[in-house]
Each structure stands twice: as C-alpha cells, then as structure tokens.
Amino acid sequence: MPSLLLTVFLLQLAIHLVNTFGASSINTLLWNLYSNLPISKSESSAEQRELKSQYMKVRKEMNAISSQDEFAKWAKLRRQHDKLLEQLEKNKASTDSTRATFDSAVSTLRWLGTNGLRMFLQFWYSKQAMFWIPKGWVPYYAEWLLSFPRAPLGSISIQAWFLACTAIIILVSDALVAIVALVAGLGSGTAQKAKKEPIAVPSEKAGSKEKEEL
Amino acid sequence: MSSAIINVDDALEPTLQSILDQKTLRWIFVGGKGGVGKTTTSCSLAIQLARVRRSVLLISTDPAHNLSDAFSQKFGKEARLVNGFTNLSAMEIDPNGSIQELIGQAEEGEGPAAGMGGMMQDLAFAIPGIDEAMSFAEVLKQVKSLSYETIIFDTAPTGHTLRFLQFPSVLEKALAKVSQLSTQFGPMLNGLLGANGQLPNGANLPEMMEKLESLRETISEVNTQFKDENLTTFVCVCIPEFLSLYETERMIQELAGYHIDTHCIVVNQLLFPKAGSECEQCNARRKMQKKYLEQIEELYDEFNVVKMPLLVEEVRGKERLEKFSEMLIHPYVPPAGGL
C-alpha cells in the first residue's frame, strides 16, 4: 500500500502545481514546445514568420514612396501588400484553429491525468483502508469521519488521505512563498541600501572637487 | 491610323474595338468616380455597339439620371427607342425608388411582390441594401425577357456599383437559410397558423417562400453570368488625376475579387493644348495629366487604355455623341507640336 499513499500524494502535488502556475500558461509552454518540434507544424510557423517579415518590408517600402508621384509603383506595392495581408490572415486563422484543437486536447489529457485520475482512485479504493490507526487513539466520531465514506471503521479512507495531503501541500507551499517573499524583500532592501551608497559617494567627491576648485 | 496598327505589337490597342469584336458579351458595365464622364462614355459605347449588334439597351442605375440629358430626350422606367436609332433603346431606373413601388404594387395585389405585403416591407427594411438588390434583380428579370443582344449599364459612382455586384452572394446565403428553416418548421407553423397558412399581417407563408425562392434563383443566375468573362465585362472610366486613379485601382482590385472581368480603361478629359499655347493653366494641367498618364500606362499594361480628349463643347445630342464615340474606336490624334 505505501505506493498508493505516495501516488495519492504526488497526484495531489501535481494538481496543486497546475493550479498555481495556471492551466493557460502550461498550455502555452506545451504549445511552444510543440510548435518548435521539427515536424510540418514548425515549418508552417517559419513560413508565417517569413511572410510577416516580407509584409513588413513591403509596407515600409510602400510608406517610403509617394503615392502621388509614383502611382504605378505604389499601386503595385499595394497589390502585393493586400495579397500578403490576405495570406497572413488566412494562415493566422488556420494556426488559431490548430491551436484551439491543441489546447482542448491538452486540457482534456491534463484533466484525465489529474482530477480524473483522482476521482477514479477515490472511487476504486473507496472500500480499502489506506492504513489502520491504533484503537482508542481517537474517539468514535473521529474514527467514523476518518474512514468516511466507505472504508472500514478504524482505518484511514482514501478521501481522508487526499484531504490530509492537500492540507500539507497548501501549508508547505504557503510557507515557501512567505519565505521567498521575505528573502526577496530583505534582498531588495539591502540592494537599495547598496545602491544609495555609491550614489552618495561621488556626489560628495564632486562636491569636494568643486570646493578645491573654488 | 498606321500608328494604331504599329501599337498593336508592343501594347494592347488603345481602343474599345475588343468589346465590339467580342460578340458573346451580354452585360457591359461602365463605372468610375462621379463626374469623370461615365454617361458620355456609356452613351458613346452604346452608339458604337448599336452599329455592330442587332439590339442594344442602355440602362442607367445612377440616381442622378443623365441619359435624358445626354440624348436630350426623356427616358423612364420602360425601355424606349432613342431618337434617330432603330436598335438602341434606353431606360432609367432608380434603385432606391423602385422598392417603394414594389411594395405599393404588392399592397394593391399586383406586381411581382404581390402577396408578400407587410412581410416584404419588414424584410426590405431589416437588411440594409436588400431593397436595392431586389429591385435590381427585378430589373434584370425584366431585361432578360426583353431579349436584347447587349445591355450596357451606366452605373452609379463607385461604391454603389460594387455594393450591387457584391450583394447577390449575401442575399443568396440569407435566402437559402430562410428556405431551409421554412421547410423544417413550415408544417409546424402551418399547424399554428391554420389551414390557409395565413400570417398575422395577411401574408401567405408558402406563397411568400415561393416568391423568395424564385428571387433567389434569379439572383444566383445573374451572379454566375456576371462572373463569366465571355458574358460580362466592366469598363472603368477615369480622369488622369490622383483620386480618380486611386479609386480606379481600388475598383479593379475589388472587381478581381468578385471575379468580374475588366480589361478596358477609358481615360477621359485629356487636355491637348496647341503648340505655342499661351494658356498657363492648360499647360500646367497637361503636365500633370501627362505624369499620371505615364503611370497608368506603366501600371495597366494588360488593359486597353483609351485616351479621350476634353472637348470645348458639352457632349450632348446624337450628333456630338456620335462624333465623340468615333474616338473610342479610332484613337484621337493630338495636335502636332503640343506639349
């Protein structure tokens, strides 16, 4: 059973991490990884970049010449510009739709891997005891609560274990965040001090120099 | 004359001869910015076409009707022969006005929209532009039944024209949706409405759907005809000035977007001061026009670019129009020694 205990803990940790970093930023990270993979997808994104730079070039060129003095040249550039713009928009639409499919697929997989898995485990092991607590440690109502909903009385149910893991993870992460904030605050405080000093020194020196000159 | 023949080798000939020669052409649009001479050009083209075709109809869709002015003869909603011609007719339609008439007719129980009544009116005001498109479709239906060999449209200034040409596809989509809905929910609606299918405002649902469906068919047929380069072409009229050129370029691109063929540009109101002319304004203007003419020739090398001079008299009446129309076919030769 210890492996199940560990699994539950790690699963809860993963859920917590996803919640902290945000699902959308994880999706973006995965998307960037995916679009940089050496498959056809990345080729089209390179093409898009190429198109964009070409478009900007034409645009710059078009803005540089006078439409009144060189109408023919300007109009030709304009045609090119319109064509490129249309192509860019079409490409963008197709990329967007691919991205949407990718996002929904990733979201589904992520849900299945975290919350879905948790629900499954909670259901599958609901009648099993995670471990037993010595008799008489806690009163009856507490025993009943710890074994809620279907684990045998006097044991810890998987639900209770999940809750315990969640509580610990939140506690530790809050503590970590607080420590990091404290350290960062101290660091920036000392940095400010350190900054102030070198500014003060040259001004004094300059002042003394001026005095000397005077 | 010989210069025109030599020109054929290096550039397309600067005349509208290609339109006269293309016997399959049925619809010819003449369009451009306001005040560049669309009406004069379309009248002249009609006169030239009348010489080589069995019958020609000239239609003005411009709300500011100029056909009557140009031929010094009153034209109306019905096609009427132009004085002095046996195979050239003209008519003026007001795209904005005719929907009101259509509704009026419908309320009196006659005309193409009869039976649609208040529903029709609601529809006409619910979708912007539908009134114009529907009246246009009605006119086209009429024109088709009149069996003219060639029909020339003297269109309203740029924006208007393009809206017309663009509209059929929009309307077609909307009507297809409505028809589909009505076939799905029609039975249920009829159950609610009673045996006769009477709508609250006195219209009949199945009958109305039938009317809309026939309208849609007309529009889609016209749409496919307009996209066929053997049947339809667009003649752009412009003057050698920046704004006019800009609009023309935009129009040509949009027409290409709608797959409407265009291969003729008429450059109107060209100044050709005589050699040693003292008119400062004329010379300055000629210089400017020359600049834009060069640009036009560089940009539209695949077009027939026709150059028409600015005359000292207004081009009105049959004789003057005929004289002017000659220059569409036989290029004008500017006075020697000019700028």
Brief summary of the model shown:
Chain A: Its main location: endoplasmic reticulum. The complex is a heterodimer of chains A (214) and B (339). Chain A has helices at residues 2-21, 23-35, 40-64, 71-124, 140-146, 158-213.
Which features does this protein show?
heterodimer, A: 214 residues, mainly alpha, B: 339 residues, alpha/beta, Rossmann fold, 12% strand, endoplasmic reticulum (chain B), ATPase_ArsA/GET3 (chain B)
If you had to describe this structure to a student in words, what would you say it looks like?
The complex is a heterodimer of chains A (214) and B (339). By secondary structure, chain A is mostly helical. Chain A has one domain (2-196). Helix content of chain A is 82%, strand content 0%. Chain A contains 6 helices and no strands. The N and C termini of chain A lie far apart (86 Å). Chain B has a single domain, classed as P-loop containing nucleotide triphosphate hydrolases (Rossmann fold). Helices cover 53% and strands 12% of the residues of chain B. Chain B has 12 helices and 8 strands. In chain B, strands 3-4-2-5-1-6-7-8 form an 8-stranded mixed beta sheet, with helices on both faces. In chain B, helix 3 (38-52) packs across helix 12, helix 5 runs antiparallel to helix 6 and helix 7 (130-146) crosses helix 8. The longest helix of chain B is centred in the middle third of the chain and has 36 residues, at 158-193. Chain B is elongated.
Mean pLDDT of chain B: 78
Helix percentage of chain A: over 70%
Give me the side-by-side strand order of the main sheet of chain B.
3-4-2-5-1-6-7-8
Unreliable stretches of chain A (pLDDT < 50, length at least 5) are 200-214
Residue stretches of chain B low in confidence (pLDDT < 50, at least 5 long) are 1-9
For the largest beta-sheet of chain B, the strand count, sense and barrel status come to: 8 strands, mixed
Q: CATH class of chain B, please?
A: Alpha Beta
Class computed from helices, strands and strand pairing of chain B: alpha/beta
Oligomer: heterodimer
Describe the sheet with the most strands of chain A.
none
β-strand percent of chain A reads under 5%
Roughly what is the average pLDDT of chain A, rounded to an integer?
84
Q: What order do the SSEs of chain B take from the amino end to the carboxyl end, as H and E?
A: HHEHEHEEHHHEHHEHEHEH
Number of separate helices of chain B:
12
Second rung of CATH, namely the architecture of chain B: 3-Layer(aba) Sandwich
Rounded to an integer in angstroms, the radius of gyration calculated over CA atoms of chain B is 23 Å
CATH superfamily of chain B: P-loop containing nucleotide triphosphate hydrolases
SS-based class of chain A? mainly alpha
Number of strands of chain B: 8
